[in-house]
Specification:
Length: about 130
């Protein structure tokens, strides 16, 4: 039986962002929601341009975090429009762009402090 490595909530959220950005997710945000809600410590939101990319982003996060334990639940992976991966302390959402703007989690959680994502993970700014 293998022992899973321990990881802090913040490190898990950063890993979610890293693995999402590895699959060219865009508009990735990490929001610290612990003081605002009991549902999780962090909310990570990302976008993809197609259902296939949304699925690839979600799979990258799930696979990358496997060594730290299994998620409590995954919803929407088969459809690839809006995938939610629940790690208990971190909720990871990846949307196809139209649904992200429709459900507007960014606006709903606008008062939550945003965590800075390390520059080394940001593919959009490389070479700019």
């Amino acid at each position: 039986m293998s022992v899973k490595k321990e990881i802090s909530s913040l490190d898990r959220a950063l890993k979610c962002a890293e693995y999402a950005l590895d699959k060219k997710a865009y508009e990735v945000k990490i929001l610290e929601i612990a003081r605002l809600s009991s549902i999780a410590d962090y909310l990570v939101i990302a976008s993809g341009t197609s259902d296939k990319q949304v699925q690839a982003i979600a799979e990258s996060v799930r696979t990358g975090l496997k060594k730290f334990g299994k998620p409590l639940d995954i919803e929407g992976l088969a459809e690839g429009k809006w995938v939610v991966i629940d790690y208990g302390d971190v909720l990871f959402h990846v949307f196809i762009e139209e649904l992200r703007s429709y459900y507007d989690l960014d606006g709903l959680w606008q008062v939550a402090p945003q965590v800075e994502i390390p520059e080394k993970f940001l593919w959009e700014t490389k070479g700019a």
